[in-house]
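User: Hi! Is it possible to get a structure for several chains at once, not just one? Here's what I have:
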Amino acid sequence: MPPSFLIAVAILLCSLAVGSAAAPYRPRSDSEVLETLPRSAQRGDSSAVRALRLLHARDPANLDIAVRLAQAQIAAARAASDPRLWGQAQATLAAWWEQAAAPVPVLLLRAAIRQNRHEFAAAQADLRRAIAEQPAHAQAWLDLASLQQATGDLAGAANSCEHVIGAGATAIGTVCRAGVDALTGAGAKAYRVLEDTIAQEGLAAQPAAVRTWALTLLAELAERLGRNGEADRWYRQSLAVDPADSYTLAAYADFLLDRRRAVEVTVLIAADTPIDSLLLRRAQADRLLGADTAQTGSDALAARFDALRQRGDNVHRREESRFRLALAQDPAAALELALQNWAVQKEPLDARIALEAALAAGRPEAATEVVRWVAESGLQDVRLDALLHPVPAR
Amino acid sequence: MNAVLKGIASLMLLLGLCAPAAAHKPSDSYLSLRREAGQLSGRWDIALRDLDSVFELDRNHDDRIDWGEVRTRRDEIDRYAKSRLSLSAGAACPLQIADHLIEQHSDGRYLVLLLQAPCAGDGALSVDYAALFDVDAQHRGLLKLELGDATVLSAVLSREQPRQTFQAGGASHWQAFAGYVRDGIFHIAIGYDHLLFLVALLLPAVLGRAGRAWQPVPSLSVAAVSVLKIVTAFTLAHSVTLSLATLGIVQIPARLTESIIALSVLLTAVDNLVPFLPARRWTVAFAFGLIHGFGFASVLADLELPRSALALSLVGFNVGVELGQLAVVAVLIPLAYLLRRSLLYQPVVLRGGSVAIGLLAAGWLAERSLDLKLMPF
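Assistant: Yes, the chains can be modeled jointly so their relative placement is included. Here is the combined structure:
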């Protein structure tokens, strides 16, 4: 029997088994495996972290232990895109969570958690307070720059990046600044600066997360400038540093989807990925390929967005808008979500989904605000060019 | 065959071969409670992953949780659950845990605690929730509370808002009934396919068939009798299937139902142009009414009815549908009767209208049977 047939049979049987588990049931034996946990490493659960957790349980008011544990949890939350780990990091900081004037390390972590929940104003207040206490805190300025960039305050972000350089983190500050310049009409120059910085030995000495960040930034910029061959190469280099970085995986998958290289997306992202943003790209690829798994992925996404709505979360509007547009074929709902998202987030992806949804819904005038913003900021993006023309400028 | 397959399938499950990859989702527990005289009952689904972060269920650190690792910790889990959820209605309603089961949710398997709580007071019910906030500050308890009179209330319990109080009575039976009547009227008002089916059926009701041609009826009473027969037959038929489907006796996939409904509109419209269905229109109304009932039932199912109030909701919804239908008849028939002798009635209203309805229905039929999205509504 060909292996593909066996796999098909296995999937069918599994769907029967899991399907039959759709109502509460009593497992037949003690050895029945009920749950496969994310691997310990992904849960930030190395022996060092486990030790920290025990220490923290014994002394929850110990600042040093709590900060180190929360840092490990947030790093793991970012790496695995797992919202539970963000909630756990918040719980670790419980002793200081309600204090407006918390210690600086707590302010930074609290800002990161709040930014993840899209509480941008509160996150910004935390970072400003940290900077007021320690004006040369490079990490605080860098976090502020990223928050400002996400919310569309590009002048503020450029200024914050300069402060990162001023605080002594020259290489990181330079990458930060180039990332902002790339969005404000100086794309070609920013590209040269980024390339130079990445070539420098200083960046090679940085942690993997920083190199991934810089390489992906470069890849995205190359893509926006229409230099597709280079973009492809930078994305691959970035994934060579960290093959599991979900931000880079999503960005590269988008690059491939735009070129209808759907098969490569299916190699990049497993059909059962636990990460919503990646499952969305995989389902889009499956749809392009006409694969049956497209419907499975689409149903799973619908269930997950539904579950998020039930708990009152609204941090997934960008992803959900894309889902409504590309998979659920409901452009009106997609537009509604894209505009709500645009009110709080203003990155190139946010502009793109708003424009696409407005055109698909037959309401180009709804995106006038987006067009104005793109024109004023000077954003260069070949992907937006084709979308901008049909929208009336105000 | 089926039993053999299921056997192999559960064996694979046993071996952990198809433990589905758990989706990443924020931590939620699902608490559903039903309040009846002197008694609260229900269930509480808590993710095994969340219980693991409280109890380290995965004792052997193999990154898997098996039933043994859960079963042997039941007492600890029960104590935890009882200390983290308190219910009271005037006096405390002490929680009892009757059984432990497992259920699959979108982000993995959950332990299902079956709950009982004697609750003598008849005052407002207070729910005080404190589970898991200390290990995951973004955890939520999603509560669904069903009251004796069919009202279902829901609430999100969070670290910031861990306590909710629910008034005893909720809405009265009459209010609940009126709500279903409204739902029924609303559905017929936005259910273009049902409306157009009725219109297509009724357009010729002010005419009588003379061979292959149509003749205006001599009097209002003739038209009225024919309308009455059609509407009654349609109502009887869809009431039967609506009840059968809602009670779970007969089930038909929605896509099939929706496709046949579109087909029924198309055939009726074509019949107005080129008669081929039985001349006694009430028989047509009855036959197609059966399938429209299944369409109504899927709407009613989406409203997520409490089982205890099925009869109330079924009757209410049906009454709403009939009222909406009567409103259409009350507008359409007098107009059609007045216009029936006009030169424009047959070529424009009857034929033109039927062509338009037929085209629309053909579009729906293509869309629904092929699962496409072609049309704006």
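Residues 1-21 of chain B have pLDDT under 50 and may be disordered. The radius of gyration of chain B is 28 Å.

User: Great, thank you!
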